[in-house]
Amino acid sequence: MRRVLRNLLVDAVFFLFAIVFTVLIADSVLPDDLSPAAEATENAVWLVACLAVFARRRWPVLIAAALIVAGTWLHLLTGPTLVALFTVAAHRPPRVTAWVTALAMAPAPLAVAQHLLDPEPDRFVRGIVYFLLVLGAVGWGLYTRSRRQLIASLRERAERAAIDARRQAREDMAREMHDVLAHRLSLLSVHAGALEFNPTAPPAEVRRAAAVIRESAHQALDDLRDVIGVLRSAGDTGRPQPVLTDLERLAEESRTAGTRVVLDQRVADPGAAPAAAGRTAYRIVQEALTNARKHAAGAPVTVTVRGGPGTGLTVEVGNPVRGGGAPGPIPGAGQGLIGLAERASLAGGRLEHHRSADRFTLTAWLPWPAAGGGP
Fold first, then answer.
1. Is the pTM here over 0.85, yes or no?
2. CATH fold of 169-366, please?
3. pLDDT tens digits for 122-151?
4. In the chain, N or C: fewer CB atoms in 10 Å?
């Protein structure tokens, strides 16, 4: 509705332009010996041409061609003709505009030849002004068309960028959900499996395992609720993201679940690590511990973190291929290492993994600018 009103307003402005333009030039273009019948015909055709402005978007080429041809005999059609030429240039392809412009400029050579044979300065000047006005109307229309196309292109590019950003945000959230929930649920599975494997465990140990299961399930539900909230609102839950200093807490969680974790923290000031590098390092270690519980239950895991400003942050996680733990392997989607490689790449780093006959090693390098800052 808003666009319709805007178009009507623009058409009304062009209608007034055609009328005012004709009123201003009428005395100079109408012959003095014009008969009353001819004058009435001029006025009637001119009024119809002005009203045709309101149909210019539907039949721009037809209206322009008709006005150009009629203008070779009539004198008051310059204003509507300029509007029609502008519309053709603004709304039709350049090839069509070129043909219509050529039709409008066709009398130019004849006017020049006639002036050379029978010089009439006033008539010749009026012809020059007319052709300049034609070129001006066409040029303005071409400019309007190119500007409209540019705006449409920028809008389309912005919409595409917004769609890409939303898709990237959802991919990031899916990756985050995989890392967090896989860690929580693997802890839960380890303790539940331990209870199943050792049903005669002392009551105190059973209570402790049940408490860990309950806490892990509660945290998993909280994490899932946060993920769903972000997906719905496309915003931030406000929960703090993990940093490098949280690795000790992560290792302690795994120790509580029965995994022997040795954390070798060789970073002088972990709190100064860039947020992106610290968060990515945390998720890499988290996924590595989850994979160790899945595929080598009971095996000891060694986590080494070293580096600093200028040299980058190196994270290395290693564990034996086979563990000595109780429960069987925990099912997984097989996307963990792929997701970690993508996460490291997005952070500007790289990730490699190597499996020998008896050991699996995961190594990641993340950038740490010399200034000590980071994104």
1. no
2. Heat Shock Protein 90 (3.30.565)
3. 667 777 888 899 999 999 999 999 999 999
4. N
